[in-house]
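Researcher: I've been going back and forth with a colleague about how Acyl-CoA thioester hydrolase/thioesterase-3 might be arranged in three dimensions. Neither of us has a model we trust, so I'd like an independent prediction. The organism is Seinonella peptonophila, in case that matters for your notes. Sequence below.
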Amino acid sequence: MKTEIEIEVRPTEIDVMGHVNNAKYIEYLEWGREDWYNKAGIPFDELQAIGIGTVVARIEIDYRKEARLGERLLIKTQPHSKGRTSYLLQQQIFNQEDQLVTEAIVTGVTISLEKRKSVPLPTILAEHFTRERER
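Model: Here is an independent structure prediction for Acyl-CoA thioester hydrolase/thioesterase-3. You can compare it with whatever you and your colleague have in mind.
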């Protein structure tokens, strides 16, 4: 399942160069992932109920084009692949002219909330990676 959310660049997200600060893109991607989890039917409280949490282990990000104050950005998130305890989400951010601004592959790991150690992906999450990847 691919999800999309739209945001508007705010004044507090701009750096001295007059464009979005690189750290803000990490936050935008997080908003996109939270939206994906919720729309996929796996909100944090459902994972927490089975003693599972998700943590970001790695973000591989490429900045392609600057975004500026007031621009509308579209954040797209979709499953990429999975391992035993980890999974990859592909994310892209486009501007209002449909130009690629940023793209990332985010590695998530499922952990036991009690032991704070990695555990196999629960079915509720793993099942989203068994379908053919959307393009």
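Researcher: What would you highlight for our discussion?
Model: I'd start with this: The CA atoms of residues 92 and 103 lie 4 Å apart. After that, consider the following. The first strand starts at residue 3 and ends at 8.
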